[in-house]
Amino acid sequence: MEIRIGLRDSGRELAFESAQAAKEIESYVEQALNSDAKALKLVDDKGRLFIVPVQALAYVEIGADQARRVGFIA
Q: Is 12 helix (H, G, I), strand (E, B) or coil?
């Protein structure tokens, strides 16, 4: 699952792959936004922890459950 997180006041975004399901990630984001949480915490497929301040979130894009294609498309 590809995750992209846009940050306010920044032209860059965080992009990483996660083994978590789309619904699970969506629920983490909703909980962080609807509660008094200070940070959103997500783990990528390599075990790295990403901690993003909730106030800095511009958007969270949750990709499809498709594997990346490698090579050329004929």
A: coil
pLDDT band at 72 (very low <50, low <70, confident <90, very high): confident
Q: Please check whether the domain covering 2-62 is classified as CATH 3.90.1480.
A: no
Domain ranges (residues) in the chain: 2-62
Distance CA 7, CA 52 (A): 9
6 by Cβ neighbours in 10 Å (0-12 / 13-18 / 19+) ranks as middle
| pTM of the complete model | 0.79
Which amino acid, one-letter code, is at 55? Q
Q: Which of 53, 64, 56, 61 is nearest to 26 (CA)?
A: 61
Q: Is the distance from CB of 11 to CB of 58 less than 8 angstroms? A: no
Residue matched to tokens 């075990």: 47
